[in-house]
Specification:
With 245 residues, the chain is of the alpha/beta class. The protein has helices spanning 16-23, 41-48, 101-111, 128-137, 163-171, 196-214, 217-227, 230-234, and strands spanning 4-5, 8-9, 31-34, 53-58, 70-72, 86-92, 112-123, 175-182, 237-244. Helix content is 33%, strand content 21%. Strands 5-4-3-6-7-9-8 form a 7-stranded mixed sheet, sandwiched between helices. Strands 1-2 form a two-stranded antiparallel ribbon. Helix 6 packs antiparallel against helix 7 (217-227).
Amino acid sequence: MRNSYKGIEINTAKNIHEIVFQLINKDTNTKIVDIPSGYGAFVLRLKDNGFKDIVAIDIDNILKIEHHQFSTGDMTKTLPMKDSSVDTLVCIDGIEHIDKQFKFIGEVSRVLKIGGELVVSTPNISSLRSRWRWLMTGHHNKCKSPLNENSPNPLHHIGMLSFPEMRYLLHTNGLIITDITTNRIKHISWIYSILLPFSYLYTTLTYRKTGRKEGTKLINKEIKKSMFSYSVLFGETLIVKAKKI
C-alpha cells in the first residue's frame, strides 16, 4: 500500500502523520482525541507508542483496527466530550471538508484543557504554487477542478483555508499558534520562487497600509513573517499546532 501504516490506509499526503506525531505532547498518560479518525492509522500509531487514553471520533465507525474508545461525532455539531476534558486533539486533513469551521474550532476550544493543544493539517493554499494555480484557473492546489455538484459527499474540499484564515479562526477562539510546519516541499514548488519578490513587496505595502489604518501593525507583522516562512511558501500541506490559553 503506497501510503499506509502497518497495512492501514492513510488518506492523506505523504509524511503528514509522522509530522503530526512529532508535534504532539509525548506524555502517554494524557487524553488524546483523533477526529476524523478514518480507518484508524493514526490511532494505531498512538497505541504503538504507548498512549492509553485515545478517543477516535468520526461520523461513522470505519476503523480497521480493534479500538474500544470510538465515539460517533460530527465536526459541524457538538463534540461528544465534556468541557476541559482533553489534553490533545488532532485533526488531520478534516477541517477543509466542513462548512462550519468556527463551530468546530469553538468546540475544540471548549473540550481542551487550559494549556491543551490542537494539531491541525489542511492543504496549503497559501503556497506560491497554489496561489499561481488560483490566478490561472480560479482553483487552488488540491482542489484543481470544480467539485461534482451532482454527487456531493463528505470527501469534497468545501472549506479550503489560507494561513491567515486559519490563524484568525484559532486566535479568535482562544487558541494561540505555537508551531507552523509542513509535511514536505516538492521540488516543483521551488520553481514558483520567481514570484517571491513581487509577492513580498505587494504584501508588505498592503499590510503596512492596513496596519496603520486598523491599528494591527503587530498582528500584520507576525502574519507576514509566517506567510513568508518556507513551510507556508512552498509546503504541500499546512500543519499548525496551537495551545489553549
